[in-house]
Write a structure and sequence with these properties.
This protein has 333 residues and is mostly beta strands. The chain is built from two helices and 24 strands. A hairpin with a 4-residue loop joins strand 11 (126-131) and strand 12.
């Protein structure tokens, strides 16, 4: 009788946990498209299909930039050396990824100092890499690999929380500027305030702007490893505006039920307004390994109908425990 009672209690406990997870996850929408103004030139952004890049090395891909054609440079924040991978990424006429292939690694430094972001000035042949461990932006000549400039983002170094500083980089060819923003609020700043930094191509600080985050969906503390909340990436559209990838990552106590919410906004530096573009959520289920922590974002090709493809890459933490995957996906503007 006691064994039977224990079985019933265990069964009820499992049902309770499952019911709680279903209710909890139902409070977070999977896709946000029409709840806010999401027009881009009179058209609504379209989410492409996620792509599981099984043919590339397991990685921590945290930044991506297009070099030309189907060639892209990606940084991995836990690679053995400083530098970048070169991937070929093919996309069909609908804007969906059909193939991701690794073409090797280009070493630029002996040590990887938590390289989280990458940008490219094609006209000057310069690659920029953001290093979170030292709060440094380094510039390299892509032709010979020599380091030809750097700057320390001292506000990030002095007031940033660990693993919450440099996560983003983009080069704006219209403004001839490099932009970065702190991932999470700095010590002493408002809990939703970030600092958008604008630099010259030579990495001299030009201006600083305020960016205000959306409120997080989860109200637990955001300065620990179970809840990350802030900006994962910036992307210049080449017309004076930037896309901002806001990312909230909540790790559930039992891992199952963990989720990531991504939202993309469009801004003009100096203008406090932000326009919602699109948003989506991924979840770790008992039989679903679709959880994707998207951290990199870059321009892709233009489709035959004139629409612009945006490519995103996720950090799988080296395909952690065989559960996470190296996901890529597109957004079509």
């Amino acid at each position: 009788m006691m064994k039977r009672n224990l079985t019933v209690i265990l069964y009820c406990a499992i049902l309770t946990v499952v019911a709680f997870l279903v209710f909890y996850l139902s409070c977070v929408p999977d896709v946000i498209t029409t709840s806010r103004d999401s027009d881009i030139g009179g058209r609504e952004a379209i989410l492409g299909m996620p792509f599981d890049a099984r043919d590339v090395p397991a990685g921590n891909y945290s930044g991506i930039v297009r070099l030309g054609g189907n060639r892209y440079a990606l940084v991995s924040d836990k690679a053995d050396q400083g530098g970048y991978f070169i991937f070929n990424i093919d996309i069909d006429d609908k804007g969906n990824i059909t193939s991701v292939k690794n073409r090797g690694f280009r070493q630029l430094e002996a040590t990887n100092l938590d390289e989280e972001a990458i940008a490219y000035d094609k006209e000057k042949h310069n690659i920029y890499i953001g290093k979170e461990e030292t709060s440094e932006i380094a510039r390299y000549n892509i032709l010979d690999g020599t380091k030809n400039g750097s700057t320390l983002v001292t506000d990030f170094r002095d007031y940033g929380y660990s693993n919450r500083t440099i996560e983003s980089l983009t080069y704006d060819k219209r403004r001839m500027s490099v932009f970065t923003i702190n991932e999470g609020p700095l010590k002493g700043d408002n809990g939703l305030m970030l600092r958008l930094m604008e630099y010259t191509p030579n990495l001299n600080l030009k201006k600083q702007y305020t960016y205000i985050l959306d409120m997080p969906l989860d109200d637990s503390p955001t300065n620990d490893d179970s809840h990350a909340f802030g900006v994962a990436e910036l992307l210049s559209l080449g017309d004076g505006t930037l896309l901002v990838l806001e990312r909230e990552f909540k790790v559930a106590g039992m891992k199952i039920g963990s989720w990531v919410m991504n939202k993309i906004f469009r801004i003009t530096p100096g203008n406090p307004e932000k326009t919602f573009v699109t948003g989506w959520r991924t979840v770790l289920g008992a039989s679903d390994s679709g959880l994707a922590n998207y951290e990199g974002m870059c321009l892709g090709p233009t489709l035959p109908d004139g629409r612009q493809v945006i490519i995103l890459c996720a950090d799988s933490q080296d395909r952690h425990m065989g559960v996470l995957r190296d996901w890529f996906r597109t957004v079509i503007l």
